[in-house]
């Protein structure tokens, strides 16, 4: 994370070919190549909530998303600083 880039990946734990990839319920979560836990799919509560979520995720594409830095730190690195998001 010293370079300012964080890679988050979701991997399907299922070995079954019966479900489509986006219909999986349990995913392994990796952060910068290290397994950091699990993610569980939940149903959204309303269409409005779904649209709000999609607006938040608009800048992140499936497969490869990069979040831009908010500001450049004094050492020249682009960092996300806590409390300024």
What does this structure look like?
- With 85 residues, this protein is an alpha+beta fold.
- The chain has one domain.
- The protein has one helix at 47-56, and strands spanning 8-12, 26-31, 34-40, 71-72, 78-79.
- The strands form 2 sheets. A 3-stranded antiparallel sheet has the order 1-2-3, with no helix packed on it. Strands 4-5 form a two-stranded antiparallel ribbon.
- The chain starts with 7 loop residues before the first strand and ends in a 6-residue tail after the last strand.
Using brief descriptors, characterize the structure shown:
single chain, 85 residues, alpha+beta, three-stranded antiparallel β-sheet, two-stranded antiparallel sheet, flat, disordered C terminus, MIZ1-like_pln
Calculate the terminal CA-CA distance, rounded to whole Å.
17 Å
Provide the β-strand percentage band: 25-35%
Spatial ordering of strands, largest sheet: 1-2-3
Radius of gyration: 16 Å
The SSE order reads EEEHEE
- State the helical fraction: 10-25%
Mean of all residue-level pLDDT scores: 71
The total domain count is 1
- β-strand number: 5
Shape: flat
Biggest beta sheet attributes:
3 strands, antiparallel
Helix/strand structural class: alpha+beta
SS element count, helices: 1
Low-confidence stretches: 80-85
């Amino acid at each position: 994370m010293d370079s300012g880039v964080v890679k988050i990946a979701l991997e399907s734990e299922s070995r079954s070919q019966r479900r489509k990839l986006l219909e999986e319920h349990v995913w392994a979560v990796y952060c910068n190549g290290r397994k950091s836990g699990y993610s569980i799919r939940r149903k959204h509560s309303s269409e409005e909530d779904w649209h709000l979520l999609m607006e938040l995720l608009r800048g992140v594409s499936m497969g490869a998303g990069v979040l831009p830095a908010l500001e450049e730190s004094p050492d020249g690195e682009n960092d996300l600083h806590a409390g300024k998001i």
